[in-house]
Amino acid sequence: MHAAFPMLVCLLVGQLPAGTRSALTSDQLEEDDRHNLAIARGHVLLRTGSLVLHADELVYDVTSNHFEIPSPLFGVDGTTLITARSAAGTLGTGLGSEALTLTDVRIEEFQWLPPDIGLRAQSAAEVRRQGHLIMAVDGTLLKQLGPSHYELDNVRVSPCACPEAGKCRPDWALAANRADIHSGNFALLDAPVLRISDLPLPLLRPPLLYVPLSHRRSGFLLPHLYWQSQNGFLIDEPFYLVLGESYDLTLTAGDITGATETITPPGQNAALPTGAITGPGANGVRGPRASAEFRYAPQEGTTGRVLATAIDDLNHDLDENGVARQRGFRGILHALQIADLGPRDGDRFDLDLVSDARLTGQLTTDLLFAQIPATRSSAFAFHRGDDWLFTLDAVYLQDFQGNFAASNTHLLLFGHGAPSTIARLPALTAELAEVPVGRSPLRFAFMGSLVRDGPLASAYDSLALAPPTFPNPNVQQARVAMERLDLDPTLSLPWAFGRFATASLSASWRQDAWLFENNPVPADLNGGAQSFSQAGTRGYPVLDLELGSELSRDFGTGDGKVRHTIAPQLDLRAIPFQLMNGTVPPLWVIPANGQRVYDHSTTLPVGSFLPLPYDEIDTAAGLTSPLRTTAGSLSTSTTPGGLAQGVLHVDQRLRTHAGEIFALDVGEDFDGAGAESTYATASGRAGLFHAAGFVDWSNRELPCPGCAQVDRSLRRFTEAWAEAGMNDRRGDGLALSFVRAIAAGAPRISAPLDLLYAPALASNDLRWQLPDISQASASATARIVGGLGLHAGASYELPASLFSSVTVGAGYTSGQHCCTIDLNAVFQPVRAGPNLGFAAVFVVLDLGEFTGTTSH
After folding, report:
1. I want to staple 339 with a disulfide (CB 3.0 to 4.6 A). Which of 302, 544, 604, 847 is the partner?
2. Helix (H) or strand (E) segment spanning residue 125
3. Strand, coil or helix: 606
4. In 3D, which of 341, 456, 434 has the Cα closest to residue 388?
5. Closest CA to 315 of 269, 271, 267, 363
6. 216-252: string of b/e by CB count within 10 Å (b at 16+)?
7. Coil, helix or strand for 772?
8. C-alpha 700: how far from its chain's center?
9. Rounded to whole angstroms, how far apart are CA atoms 224 and 508?
């Protein structure tokens, strides 16, 4: 017989414990009086505690208060979706082990769900469409222990499970016999084991593991383990702490086991040279370390990160008395903030500091990175209008060239006994884009800057080191703090000759003024007393003419159509004269008596009595001849002579509907005396293959006073590079590269500001004595089967006949791209020659992210 369904609802509610919000509704109800059963069918909704269950049918025993749901069902508990094959429970006894059990269960945790989705959803698929899945838990038997509190048997937890159960197997999962689950919060797993592609890996199996189940939930992250030749094993365990919706903190504790370190006893060698500490650990670190990373995003467009790392280094260095002592505390501080404050304002700061010079180099096996001589911190802010831009920036350059020993001569590079760090504090720049001048065809642009450059302390660089091939290295050099004003107004006149040619004529005047805060007044190199001005000015005009054209022609039709474009362009530039007064910072000077002084940063000769240049404005134009024989002439009111340059180049391109397939740019640099250099750049792409190259060959030698005449027709390559490769976008690839660079420099790379290319070097310029650089590199990747692949790379230094590095590795990426394993071995030379040293092994296990946390 059929009865009114609200009667059953009232009956169930009346039997539930006080304060428990439960109710049952359905489309229809059938009662079986003989068996004391009530059967609810059609959109059955059972609400027990915070869980809302949906089913097609529910059978209720009126006598025992026991119910069963024999068919598949789903339920919603906050941001948790629960699906099961069947369910059973007892109403009227409260929430507990007998209140509700579900079989063949899947629990899906979402980042967010609408608050009322549990009541209005008609299917599990509708719930899934409302949120972003962040974690899935599968098990055989679920028991409700309390509000949002469950116990699950035969558990598998994974953040990369399939959207629906049974559709695929997760890339990886944490498996356990039992789990204590707090829905929307966390789960406690008993003795879990990591399973990758359903293969168990019993590594680091704890008796109990806390696993976050909600978005941005605090908890331990996966530990990190890798090995380096100079540091041994590096082990870290991070803990992720949520401080708010837009703030989090990651605390990491770990240890560096270190490598072998041999200390020579003091009595064995009275001199105790630097090599008294030997072994692979001499250039590494050893001891406990800890770090804290704070991340924040308080508003849209603003993100920041602060990372502080501390190490108690148990390795040794020699002190000023030649005695080996432990290094002790060492630290690194990184900070980065980027703020987009709207369409007209923004700022960025990037802080990078270390406690000492060698720390970052000792934590890496990258030979080039280990040789970077400084860290750079900067801050930048801007405000812009429709045609103008104001920027304020600052730069702090921290010396890496010191050492733990106060007697180390490298400390003298930035002051005696303590660093005197170079800084740009601050620089204010104003820029005005080209704007019309009234109703005339003329256009006006402007750029100006006011900068303070120099050390933070009033100390000079004192150089006691130089390459052994250069004479007289022990000289005093002055690097002083200074203020500089730079102004560069420009007038331009563009016009067009029909649709085939364009032209632009422009004239600008660059005016600079320097004020030196403490310019030294040493004795003249010839022995006489000589003083120099604390200020200086320089000004010169820059005249430009640009002529260009572009022609194109199509070949073929439809998808096979190829367009050929040719664009010749002629650039002419002239600086007819230069006016100077007082003291200015030229690039270098060779005094009349032949004695040379050297800049420690470039190993180029400089005047010992002049401030060294800081940036490209200090060395702009390059009209001051490096062969000037008397230093005093630099302070004359007018420097005669000028400079005229030109570049003629022709750019050609072939394009199809799919993109560019070939490009060729050939150019010639010339001046009034004849061609100086020729360059060519080419690139092409065909299917899976691509290639590109560049060559520059120049006459870089000119006659000089007192030197033998040089044949101007003598040319040589100043720069050449080429690269080629293929990539099928499925995991197979090959890349080859070659670079050859003459130490004297390609004219376009070494061009001073306001020049199209660098003037020719004199044949007696010391840069010709520096070694050329040539390097060949190759790398390859190959997909073997499924997600398994191999990769290898090598870099070979040609002049040294030496492999600078060789890397081999293997990797695996699962089908769902949620699990990546990468194994790399790095080899490096232990001495000149082809011998390789075992440098490092890296094993990277990337299992994605637990609930939005980072794996670091």
Report:
1. 302
2. helix 124-130
3. coil
4. 434
5. 363
6. bbbbbbeebbebbbbbbebbbbbebebeeeeebbbeb
7. coil
8. 37
9. 58
* Structure tokens given for 167: 């559709």
Please check whether residue 512 is in contact with residue 538, taking contact to mean a CB–CB distance below 8 angstroms: yes
| Tokens, residue 48 | 């027990």
H/E segment holding residue 151 = strand 149-158
**What is the 3-class SS of 319-366, one letter each residue?**
CCCCCEEEEEEEEEEEEEEEEECCCCEEEEEEEEEECCCCHHHHCCCC
> Using an 8 Å Cβ cutoff, are 75 and 82 in contact?
yes
- For residue 380, give both structure tokens: 């930048």
Q: Phi/psi at 10 (nearest 5 deg)?
A: -60, -40
Element (H, E) at 148: none
The pLDDT of residue 740: 86
Question: Tokens 């059929």, residue?
Answer: 2
What number of residues does the chain have?
856
Measured in whole angstroms, the distance separating CA 259 from the mean position of its chain's CA atoms is 29
Phi/psi zone of residue 454: left (φ > 0), alpha (ψ -120 to 50 degrees), beta? left
Helix H, strand E, coil C: the string for 163-220 is CCCCCCCCCEEEEEEEEEEECCCEEEEECCEEEECCEEECCCCCCEEEEECCCCCCEE
Residue that has been written with the tokens 């204010």 in this structure:
428
CA 459 to chain CA centroid, nearest Å: 34
Per-residue burial over 66-85, b if 16 or more Cβ lie within 10 Å, else e, is: bbebeeebbbbbbbbbbbbb
How far is the CA of 631 from the CAs of 176, 520, 525, 526, 586, in angstroms?
81, 15, 10, 11, 11
- Cα dihedral 185, 186, 187, 192 sign: positive
* Residue 550 per-residue DSSP state: -
Pairwise CA distance, residues 334 & 307, whole Å: 5
Q: What are phi and psi of 233, to 5 degrees?
A: -85, 140
Closest CA to 803 of 767, 837, 772, 841: 837
pLDDT along the chain (856 residues), means of 10: 40 40 76 82 85 91 86 92 91 58 91 86 89 86 88 87 62 87 86 81 74 75 78 88 88 92 63 62 90 92 94 83 82 93 90 80 73 79 94 80 36 38 83 92 96 62 31 42 92 88 95 78 41 77 95 87 95 89 59 39 41 74 44 36 86 92 93 77 93 84 46 65 90 92 72 81 59 86 87 83 80 75 79 60 67 33
Residues in CB range of 6: below 8 A, 6 or more apart: none
Are the C-beta atoms of residues 641 and 660 closer than 8 Å to each other? no
Residues 6+ apart with CB under 8 A from 765: 626, 744
Question: What's the rounded Cα separation, in Å, for the pair 8 and 29?
Answer: 9
Q: Write the single-letter amino acid at 287.
A: G
| SS3 (DSSP) at 461 | coil
Could you tell me whether strands 208-212 and 186-190 are parallel, antiparallel, or unpaired per DSSP bridges? antiparallel
Residues 212/182, Cβ–Cβ less than 8 Å: no
